[in-house]
Amino acid sequence: MAVLDRIRAEVETHPLVLFMKGTPEHPMCGYSSRAVEVLKAAGARDLRTINVLADPEIRANLPRFSNWPTFPQLFIHGELIGGCEITLELHESGELARMIAEVQKT
User: Can you give the residue range of the structural domain that contains 45?
Assistant: First the structure.
């Protein structure tokens, strides 16, 4: 399966996907660590994470797929939400918790 198809399958199959550097247990950059913390604080339980450091093809092609140059990248219901700063802003406004609650209802 081509890498762009693999990425598309991940974001279409899982309602809440974070492409990050490292894993939630062992994040490999501060931005990824902060994004995971904020998602957990907002109530994310069924978070699918993809370690882009473990898959160079995804790391190289995800920015092309999403038109977003940096990591982490958060997708909700197949739609790119953004990176760490946007995730933080959504959390501070309370919007992230609402979005996650809607995802976890389905």
Answer: 3-105
